[in-house]
Hints:
Blueprint: H1 2-20, E1 45-48, E2 52-54, E3 58-70, E4 75-84, E5 87-100, E6 106-117, H2 126-136, E7 144-158, E8 161-173, E9 201-213, E10 224-236, E11 240-254, E12 257-270, E13 278-280, E14 294-296, E15 298-309, H3 311-315, E16 327-339, H4 348-352, E17 358-367, E18 372-381, E19 387-393
Antiparallel strand pairs: 1-3, 2-3, 3-4, 4-5, 5-6, 6-7, 7-8, 8-9, 9-10, 10-11, 11-12, 12-15, 13-14, 15-16, 16-17, 17-18, 18-19
Amino acid sequence: MMRNALCGGLALIIGVFLLALPVAVCGQFKYSQIAQDTLEPGRVVNFYTTPRYNRVEGLFLNVGAWVNIFSTHRLIGRADVGIGIKNRGPNTLLAVQKHYFSQNRLVIQAELFDQTTSNEYWRAYQFENTLAALFLHEDFFNYYGNRGWRIVADQVVKETIGVRVGYTQRRVVDMAVNSHFAASLFGNSKTWRRNPAVNPGDERVLEMQLRVDRRDNRYFPKSGWMVDLVYQHGAGDFATEGIFIVHRNYVPIWSSQRLVLIFFAGFRSGQVQPHHLMTIGGISSLRAFPEYYRTGQNLTQANFNFLFGQDLIRRLRLHRLPTLDSFSLGAFIDVGDAWNSSRHKNNLFSRLSGADWLVDGGFSLLFLDGFVRIDFARQLRGGDGDWRITLRLVDKL
């Protein structure tokens, strides 16, 4: 009973944060489905808040609201305003979305925004980063200012296929580097990693995304696969093109054992700027290497995870010990690199020739069906053989 209650509570937390996430051309490896309203039938307004804490903004507080403008026409409005106590002015988001069709849902949304954003939101949830900053003096993201407007269309073609097309016109803004003001409960002897500067400029971005999701469950997959394809074409001060691929495959082996394969690949060309670069190392990447271990316009990484489920715990008769009945074990190998192209390369294989592969491996201790995971990872190639321990919350593989 306690286990189910904890799982339910964590699922509720992740659901609230996912519903409040804005659509943004920032998570290059993230299929940015339009955030859906949380209005109950007959309700006119629904308020929410998603505070955060990081090394650049300090404590960020906000309040947002979904507003049912014309319920009969399924026209929904959204307003969100917030401020970080140590950096920039107010963050604002104003959006209107129109819903079409009960089947094969189509949502069209127009936005005005002036916000702090990051290119690394695919690594972790905001609340996970907040806890790391508060307790461990760690911040997994780099930040820059992002203001302008966009219009996006999100179409469910079939139950397993989604398509999204968006056009954004924005101003990229550099943010002041605050590295020492934010305190943590532990780890204050460490120095915050510097927030890198970006080159201010105007950017117009056409983005097309495709998702094919054949997993048996969206949030707790046991079998199946998923592919995200993202294409970005940038113009203005930064003329770039980018292609990004994410593939996840869940393969049942026997009983509760399964293999989870996760593959990322991203390639960008043109007038590549600091806010376009991709990084490797750390959580959701190569777990034995520090965050931002390497940075470049190209990235490829593969994570091979073997989850034993409860089988190994029961074979060792450890499930009889207090609390261990909710634990399971896993093993993993991570391979990848981030690099810059020394010359123009037109095909995938010539781009991959510039990679210098990093490799690590280790084992995982999972609690509450993987809602809490501790990874013990060791550098096997490209490092000094160091060990690293990371804690993940609500990061289901």
